[in-house]
Each structure stands twice: as structure tokens, then as C-alpha cells.
């Protein structure tokens, strides 16, 4: 067995220590994100940042980090959420209330995508997987099954929307585009739950989109749909139209006093 | 060859004679054909229900030919593409086939459903007419009770029909019905299990509802309708009080021939309206609801309008759960078992309650105007208000959503409204009744306003009033208040030319008013009698 002097042992220990420090430091340098070194933004994201800095920054703050009491941080919400909120006119919001409602959008779709690209490049997050305006065609019948189980309890069988508690509501799907429907399922805006890809696969989301779009374009075979509200408007119709018409008929047939 | 004499004009008389020789129907038939109907439009409200019922039988028979109340699971292969390859019950499949593959099936389904809504609506409006005019008083208490029974039978019949297609909406309704039965203390689970043949939904419930819907309940309804109409014939029709009308006669038109033609025409109008609604307005789009699955409950799930007040009472009920002696009384028990229990029994006893309170045991064939019974009118208004608050609360989520109101606010508005709106309705209806009565009395005492203003020597202006009858020393009319219609315009007295009568257009041409300054004409003897 080789024996060493105490001095030599101290030298080897120091060398091992040094090697370990170099290794740890090296790995740290390799895997740690650098606070200073920002990746350059793409052209679209730069356009988006310009829009952000004029229209969004007052509530969502510098670099989308959020402002306490005004707007949440947008880091990690992804381009899907941004595109949904901006395309439907919900953002920029007029005020804080039970629910921010759909209105005439301030930005066009191209600008919404630029904003989305900016937020995406800042913090990542869910993205709409198809580039065009329309989603890939899905199986309508399967979409119907999934819609009835997952969506109809708030948006109603007709997609016309419904009330939630305390002034909140599930909006009508009447104006929703394929991209907005997908983005809403993926990101769960406002009171809507998130339907992640492990709950509804992208193909199932396409099925639901196909069903909803078919539901909207489908002509009511039974005549005027009375708003597809169900028995409430049917009950109003039988009194306001049916009974009133027959009361007039009775007045015509028989005397008044 | 001798030509045989053949007179066409003799055929009806001869045929009738031959029939009478064999069946001796002339005497009873004469009584029926001569039955007199008083002429007033509100007396036709019950007919709307009767005619709707006939249309329900006709369309229902058509639907029964194609519908199969089976809960056997099938794979849909019909022509409605959004449901292709979806698993569903045979009942739902045949309902879809009725809508999409049977010729004329959809309009039949829609007419059936609209006729059902109209049937119940006409019953309720008819019942309100009976109530407000006191037509339920002795001797007609039994017919009032039968009418109430028919409302609740129609309610059950309608609910059974609503449940049959086995779509998601009807399944949701059936689930709620099973929950209501389960909420009954002690016996609830037994009742539910025996009706559903085990746990909800089981496999037998649709066949049971079907036999109830197409056989038992219509049979009972038909029997009650027969008794109801038979009693009207036996007890005679009520009539408004007026000149020549007493408790012992009926003034009106004979049933045959004019009234039969009127009624036949009215049936066609009702049929036409239902066909129109069935063709133009979509009702119960079962294909949008999808097949029933326990996990599927759509927003905006409501029952048909006549059940909606129970949905409303359920929505308004606070979550008060009572545990007593080891049993639980869920909050659902109060609004859906106790409340309809009260609503179905107390109104049935109302004729007796009122007779006791007013100490009126008399026999009444003359109707009362609502203004002449302010308490009853107020009570009726309160009842309608109570019902309406509940019914609107049954659709409060739709109202909240479409009018941008918080659903919680709607619920609280319903809870508070249920307590304060009926008393307000009672007060207002009673005050309005008294006010109308007061105005009648005023016209009887002081006469009709003529519109002629007189300037007195002292500068005072007064309106000249036309007394309706000879006046006493104080210038007050001597006609007593008897609850008849009091004329309130000069032209109703014939003073300003014939009154414009007729609902849609004047029957008579208006006559130019007489020359200015002419005194109002004296009332003729005939007119005096009329008032």
C-alpha cells in the first residue's frame, strides 16, 4: 500500500476540491437561465411589444409581470390566452367586474397574434396548434357527446350560454371562431375551467369545435327556434301568441257582455 | 208504368222518423239540441281546453304508431348526422325517427306538444274565469273540484309525456322527479324503488310512464271531461246578471243550430292555431339535447311552463335540512311535496271555505262581477301573483343571463317577492274593485256625464249629468246597485246616436251628433229597462 506525506495529501484534497468547484460552477453556468442575457425577440414579438407597451402595460405591468390589484402577470399564460382575450375584445378591459364581456375588438387578428407572440416569447405557455383560421375537421357526433358532457352544463345544449353565480355567466358561442373555441378550452378564460390536452386531446377539441360550428349553422327543422332557450320561451309563446290569438277568436265568435 | 213519387225534401224528416221509431231519441235529443248557451267570450275558454284535448288524442295516436318506449340500448343510424353512431335508448331513437324519418312526424310531434301547452294554459285561464266570477258557488262545487283534478291530471300527463322521448332534458326532469320522491321522509326510498323498479333510472320506467301517458291518464281525463261537461248540461250554464236574467232562467242561444256552428268553427280555429304553431315554431328540439346520460345536465334545463312553478319553488327554497328522530327531511321536501300538496287540496275546498266565511248557502246561477267581490278578487290576484313569482323563478337563470342580472339577485328577488308581491296584489286588486264599484254607484246616483258644461250665474261651471232613472228630491237616481253593467257613456243610452258596437269594426255606422246645444234626449222606456 502506498503511503503519502501529509503535505501531499493536502495538495490532492485541494485539487479535488478545485475540480469539484469547477464542475459545479460549469454545470450551473450551462443550465441556469441568465438574468441578463435576453434572447432577441422575433419581429412579430417586437411588434407585439410595441402594442403591449401602449395598451396593456398599465395593468399588466412592465415585462408582463403584473400590477398588484390591477392585472395579473401574463408570464406563462401563452399566446393562446392572449389571442383569445384580445380577439374577442375582452382585453383591453373597460373595468373590473364579475366578468369581462365580449365586445368589439380593439386590435385586429394580426395584431392579436403579435401580442400573443410577445407574451409567448416572454414566458411560454399554451399555444393554438393550428395556424389557419379553421381547425382541422373533427367527428361531429363524437364532438356532440363530449360537448354534452363537458360544455352544456354552462353553455347550454344550444351553445347559447347560461347564468353562473353572482353575475358571472357562460357566454354564448354564437360569435366564437374555431381558434377562439380552441383557445378557450385550452386556457380556461375567466370562469371557464381549463380543458388541458390530458383531459380533451387536441383531436377531441377538434371534434367539439366541429360540433359547435355545425350546431350554429344547422337550420332549425321545426321552424323558428324561439332562441333555442327551451321551455321558458315555449311557455311565453303559448300565452303571448296562442292564448292571446284564441282570446281574440273567442271575442270574434261570442259577445262581450 | 207509374212513376214512383220521390220527394227529396222529405228525406231528412223521414230518416229522422225511422230512427226515432227504433231508438226513441226525439225527446232526449230535443232537450240537448235546445240547450241554451249564454253568449260571452269568456265562456269559450274551457272549450279551448276541450278542443286541445281532442287534438292531443288525434296527434298522440299518430305518434304512438311510431314510438317505442323501450330502454334497450341501440346505435343510432338514422338521418340526423350529428347523432350518428351514438348509443341511445330505443325510445330516443324512435323519437328522433319520428322527427326526421317519418313523413309528417315532426309537425305531429310539435302540434302534440303545443296542444299540451295550450291545454294546460286554457285550463288555468278558464279556472281563473270561474274563480273571479264566482261560478264555483253552490251548486257547482263538484265541477270546480273536477276541474282542479283535471289540472293536476294534465300536469302529470304532461310530465309523463315530457319524460318519454328519453332525451337529456327529459332524463334530467325524471331525475328531479325521483329526487322529489326520495325526499319524502320514511317512505321515499320505497316509493322510488317501486316506481323505477330499483335504482334510477332502471329499465322499466319508460314503459310505465307510457301506459300512464297513452292509456290510464287520458282515460281518466276523458271520463272527467265527460262528467264535467255533463254537469254543465244538467246544472245549466251560469250567466252574467243583467236585464231579464234571473237565477231561474238562462238567456242565450240554442245549442242547435247556431251555437253548434259557432263551436265547430271555434274548434277549427283552435286546430288551425295549433297547426300553425306546430309548423312555424320549433318546440322541444330533442335532437339538440342528445340522449339522456346521468352526467349530462344542460344549463337552462326547465320543465314545461305548468311545472315551472315547482322548479321555481325549489330554486327559492333555502337549504334548510332537518334531522329528526334519525330521519332526514331534505329541503327539497318542502317546495316540491308539501307546497303542491297544499296547492292541490286547499283550492279544491275553496267553494266551501268561502260559503262558510260569507255565510252564503244559496243556490247561484248568476255570476258576480269581480268588482262586486273585492275580497275574492284580491285573493285571486294574490294567488296569481304567488304562482307567477314561482313560475318566473323557475326560469330565473334564463332571465338572469339574457337581461344581465346576477342569478343570486334573481333568487333573492324571488324569495322576497314571494312574500311581498301577493299581499301587494291583494291590496291593489281589492282597491281597484272597490273603486270600480264606487264609480258604478256614483253613476247610478248622479247620472252619466254628458260632456256639457254649464256656466252658472255666479260664475261656477258644472257638468250636466244625465240621470239613468227618475230622481228623488235631492236629485239622486233611485236605481239600486245590483251588480249589473252600468252604462257610462251617453251613446250607450242612445242619446248621442247608436253606440259603436263590435270588437274588430263597428257593426253600425256612427251617426252624426245632433245639432249643438240640444239637450240630451230623454231615455226611452226600453233603455230604462236595459239599465
UniProtKB/TrEMBL annotation, chain A:
Its EC number is 7.1.1.8. Gene3D superfamilies: Cytochrome c-like domain. Residues 43-123, 138-216 form the Cytochrome c domain. It holds the Pfam family Cytochrom_C. PROSITE patterns: CYTC. It is found in: Cell membrane. Binds 2 heme c groups covalently per subunit. GO terms for molecular function: heme binding; iron ion binding; quinol-cytochrome-c reductase activity. It catalyses: a quinol + 2 Fe(III)-[cytochrome c](out) = a quinone + 2 Fe(II)-[cytochrome c](out) + 2 H(+)(out). Keywords: Cell membrane, Electron transport, Heme, Iron, Membrane, Metal-binding, Repeat, Respiratory chain, Translocase, Transmembrane, Transmembrane helix, Transport. It is a multi-pass membrane protein. GO terms for cellular component: plasma membrane. The keyword Amino-acid biosynthesis does not apply. The cytochrome bc1 complex is composed of a cytochrome b (QcrB), the Rieske iron-sulfur protein (QcrA) and a diheme cytochrome c (QcrC) subunit. This is Cytochrome bc1 complex cytochrome c subunit.
UniProtKB/TrEMBL annotation, chain B:
Its EC number is 7.1.1.8. InterPro entries: Cyt_b/b6_N, Cytb/b6-like_sf, Di-haem_cyt_TM. It is found in: Cell membrane. Its main location: membrane. Residues 15-241 form the Cytochrome b/b6 N-terminal region profile domain. It is a multi-pass membrane protein. GO terms for biological process: respiratory electron transport chain. It holds the Pfam family Cytochrom_B_N_2. One of its GO terms (molecular function) is oxidoreductase activity. Keywords: Cell membrane, Electron transport, Heme, Iron, Membrane, Metal-binding, Respiratory chain, Translocase, Transmembrane, Transmembrane helix, Transport. GO terms for cellular component: plasma membrane. Its cofactor is heme. Residues 509-531 are annotated as: Disordered. The keyword Translocase applies. The chain crosses the membrane at residues 43-67, 113-132, 144-164, 210-234, 264-283, 332-353, 373-392, 412-429. It comes from the Bacteria. It catalyses: a quinol + 2 Fe(III)-[cytochrome c](out) = a quinone + 2 Fe(II)-[cytochrome c](out) + 2 H(+)(out). It is an enzyme of class 7 (translocase). Residues 522-531 have a biased composition (Basic and acidic residues). This is Cytochrome bc1 complex cytochrome b subunit. It comes from Rhizocola hellebori. The lineage of its organism: Bacteria, Bacillati, Actinomycetota, Actinomycetes, Micromonosporales. The gene is qcrB.
Amino acid at each position: 500500500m502506498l503511503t503519502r506525506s501529509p503535505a501531499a495529501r493536502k495538495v490532492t484534497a485541494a485539487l479535488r476540491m478545485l475540480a469539484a468547484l469547477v464542475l459545479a460552477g460549469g454545470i450551473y453556468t450551462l443550465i441556469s437561465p441568465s438574468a441578463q442575457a435576453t434572447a432577441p425577440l422575433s419581429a412579430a414579438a417586437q411588434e407585439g411589444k410595441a402594442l403591449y407597451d401602449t395598451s396593456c402595460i398599465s395593468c399588466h405591468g412592465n415585462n408582463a409581470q403584473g400590477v398588484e390589484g390591477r392585472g395579473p402577470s401574463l408570464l406563462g399564460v401563452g399566446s393562446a390566452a392572449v389571442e383569445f382575450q384580445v380577439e374577442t375584445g375582452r382585453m383591453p378591459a373597460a373595468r373590473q367586474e364579475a366578468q369581462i364581456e365580449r365586445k368589439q375588438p380593439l386590435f385586429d387578428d394580426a395584431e392579436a397574434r403579435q401580442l400573443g407572440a410577445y407574451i409567448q416569447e416572454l414566458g411560454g405557455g399554451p399555444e393554438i396548434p393550428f395556424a389557419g383560421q379553421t381547425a382541422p375537421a373533427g367527428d361531429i357526433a363524437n364532438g356532440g357527446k363530449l360537448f354534452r358532457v363537458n360544455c352544456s352544463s354552462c353553455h347550454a345544449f344550444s351553445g347559447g350560454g347560461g347564468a353562473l353565480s353572482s353575475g358571472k355567466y357562460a357566454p354564448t358561442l354564437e360569435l366564437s371562431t374555431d381558434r377562439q373555441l380552441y383557445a378557450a378550452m385550452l386556457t380556461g378564460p375567466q370562469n371557464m375551467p381549463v380543458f388541458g390536452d390530458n383531459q380533451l386531446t387536441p383531436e377531441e377539441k377538434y371534434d367539439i369545435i366541429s360540433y359547435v360550428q355545425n350546431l350554429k349553422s344547422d337550420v332549425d327543422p321545426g321552424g323558428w327556434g324561439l332562441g333555442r332557450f327551451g321551455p321558458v320561451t315555449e311557455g311565453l309563446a303559448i300565452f303571448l301568441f296562442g292564448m292571446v290569438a284564441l282570446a281574440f277568436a273567442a271575442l270574434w265568435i261570442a259577445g262581450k257582455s | 208504368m207509374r212513376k214512383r213519387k220521390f220527394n227529396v225534401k222529405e228525406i231528412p224528416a223521414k230518416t229522422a222518423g225511422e230512427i226515432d221509431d227504433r231508438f226513441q231519441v226525439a225527446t232526449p235529443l230535443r232537450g240537448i239540441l235546445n240547450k241554451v248557451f249564454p253568449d260571452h267570450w269568456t265562456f269559450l275558454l274551457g272549450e279551448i281546453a276541450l278542443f286541445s284535448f281532442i287534438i292531443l288524442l288525434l296527434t298522440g295516436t299518430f305518434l304512438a304508431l311510431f314510438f317505442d318506449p323501450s330502454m334497450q340500448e341501440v346505435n343510432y343510424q338514422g338521418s340526423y348526422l350529428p347523432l350518428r353512431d351514438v348509443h341511445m335508448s330505443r325510445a330516443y331513437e324512435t323519437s328522433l325517427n319520428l322527427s326526421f324519418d317519418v313523413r309528417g312526424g315532426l309537425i305531429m310531434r310539435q302540434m302534440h306538444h303545443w296542444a299540451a301547452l295550450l291545454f294546460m294554459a286554457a285550463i288555468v285561464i278558464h279556472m281563473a274565469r270561474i274563480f273571479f266570477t264566482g261560478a264555483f258557488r253552490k251548486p257547482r262545487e263538484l265541477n270546480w273540484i273536477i276541474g282542479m283534478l283535471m289540472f293536476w291530471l294534465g300536469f302529470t300527463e304532461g310530465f309523463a309525456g315530457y319524460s318519454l322521448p328519453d332525451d337529456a332534458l327529459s332524463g334530467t326532469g325524471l331525475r328531479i322527479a325521483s329526487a322529489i320522491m326520495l325526499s319524502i321522509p320514511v317512505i321515499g326510498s320505497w316509493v322510488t324503488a317501486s316506481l323505477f323498479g330499483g335504482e334510477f333510472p332502471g329499465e322499466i320506467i319508460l314503459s310505465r310512464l307510457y301506459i300512464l301517458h297513452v292509456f290510464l291518464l287520458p282515460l281518466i281525463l276523458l271520463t272527467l271531461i265527460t262528467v264535467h261537461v255533463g254537469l254543465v248540461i244538467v246544472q245549466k250554464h251560469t250567466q252574467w246578471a243583467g236585464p231579464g236574467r234571473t237565477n231561474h232562467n238562462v238567456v242565450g242561444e240554442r245549442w242547435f243550430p247556431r251555437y253548434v256552428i259557432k263551436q265547430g268553427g271555434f274548434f277549427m280555429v283552435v286546430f288551425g292555431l295549433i297547426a300553425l304553431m306546430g309548423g312555424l315554431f320549433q318546440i322541444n328540439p330533442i335532437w339538440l339535447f342528445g340522449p339522456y346520460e346521468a352526467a349530462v345536465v344542460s344549463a337552462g334545463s326547465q320543465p314545461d311552463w305548468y311545472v315551472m312553478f315547482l322548479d321555481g319553488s325549489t330554486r327559492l327554497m333555502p337549504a334548510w335540512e332537518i334531522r329528526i328522530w334519525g330521519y332526514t327531511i331534505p329541503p327539497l321536501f318542502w317546495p316540491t311535496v308539501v307546497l303542491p300538496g297544499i296547492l292541490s287540496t286547499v283550492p279544491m275546498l275553496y267553494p266551501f271555505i268561502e260559503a262558510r266565511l260569507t255565510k252564503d248557502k244559496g243556490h247561484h246561477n248568476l255570476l258576480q262581477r269581480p268588482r262586486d267581490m273585492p275580497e275574492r278578487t284580491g285573493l285571486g290576484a294574490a294567488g296569481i301573483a304567488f304562482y307567477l313569482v314561482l313560475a318566473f323563478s323557475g326560469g330565473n337563470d334564463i332571465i338572469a343571463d339574457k337581461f344581465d342580472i346576477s342569478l343570486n339577485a334573481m333568487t333573492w328577488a324571488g324569495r322576497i317577492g314571494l312574500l311581498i308581491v301577493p299581499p301587494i296584489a291583494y291590496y291593489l286588486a281589492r282597491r281597484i274593485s272597490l273603486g270600480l264599484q264606487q264609480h258604478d254607484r256614483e253613476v247610478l246616483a248622479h247620472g252619466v256625464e254628458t260632456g256639457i258644461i254649464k256656466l252658472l250665474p255666479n260664475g261656477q261651471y258644472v257638468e250636466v249629468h244625465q240621470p239613468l232613472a227618475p230622481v228623488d228630491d235631492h236629485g239622486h237616481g233611485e236605481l239600486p246597485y245590483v251588480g249589473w253593467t252600468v252604462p257610462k257613456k251617453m251613446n250607450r243610452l242612445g242619446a248621442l246616436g247608436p253606440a259603436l258596437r263590435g270588437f274588430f269594426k263597428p257593426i253600425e255606422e256612427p251617426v252624426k251628433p245632433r245639432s249643438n246645444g240640444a239637450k240630451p234626449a230623454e231615455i226611452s222606456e226600453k233603455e230604462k229597462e236595459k239599465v
